[in-house]
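User: Can you recover a sequence for this backbone? Please restate the input before giving your answer.

Assistant: Of course. Working from this structure:
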């Protein structure tokens, strides 16, 4: 098999490869960064992202009793994620699906562009 044909088959191999007895799912692909949006794209125009999935590293947290916000950073930038389901660990890599908005304030601190967490994958 040539390198060229292998590159063409890679997406198919990812979709049809077996993992734990089943097909690779969307959540597993998102963990790899496939199907996620760069944070800089979201922060440039948050109104275009009412439903977005981003992947990054937790670098900061603000909140009480597991509710609040955490800052997520990738190679392109950072933004804040509003959560009602508890904080991920600092330095953890997480994938989040939610809706983007601009100008949210928590505990008197303006957080800029945020994503309201719908699901953490």
């Amino acid at each position: 098999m040539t390198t060229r044909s292998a590159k063409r088959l890679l997406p198919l191999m990812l979709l049809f490869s077996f993992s734990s007895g089943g097909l690779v799912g969307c959540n597993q692909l998102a963990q790899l960064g496939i199907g996620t949006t760069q944070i800089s794209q979201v922060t440039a125009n948050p109104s275009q992202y009412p439903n977005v999935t981003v992947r990054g590293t937790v670098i900061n947290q603000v909140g009480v009793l597991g509710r609040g916000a955490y800052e997520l950073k990738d190679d392109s930038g950072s933004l804040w994620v509003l959560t009602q389901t508890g904080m991920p660990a600092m330095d953890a890599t997480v994938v989040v699906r939610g809706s983007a908005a601009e100008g949210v304030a928590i505990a008197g601190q303006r957080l800029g562009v945020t994503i309201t967490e719908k699901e953490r994958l």
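That completes the design. Residues 3 and 9 are 10 Å apart (CA to CA).
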